[in-house]
Amino acid sequence: METNRQKKIGALLQTDLVDILQGEIRKNSISNLIISVSKVNVTSDLSIAKVYLSVFPSEKGPELLAAIKSNAPLIKHDLSQRVKLQLRRVPNLIFFIDDSLDYIEKIDNALSRKENPIENPDLLEKRKKS
Question: What is the DSSP letter of 108?
């Protein structure tokens, strides 16, 4: 169960990380790329923050994740400069790709096509009676 303090620190880190990452995209004049921080989970001892990134287009996700992981110390430094009045220590950042939007899209596509198992139960494997 996440405490209120963990939620507040997660929200603070999330807004500042969005500014940092989108600022880097603008500074490097990268077009056709959108990064958003979908969620930040902070551990109970406030030492680790799991940052979930949503990338569009999703094909660029793995290479972007590798670039962000290699620049994690610089991102942490920029973050520490922004939150130095609110936090004593900035948690270590661990980045992940959030693929929940792709998962939702696959479910929507499956339900809208003819392969919908709800409308056509013959598509499901029959259970064997033992």
Answer: H
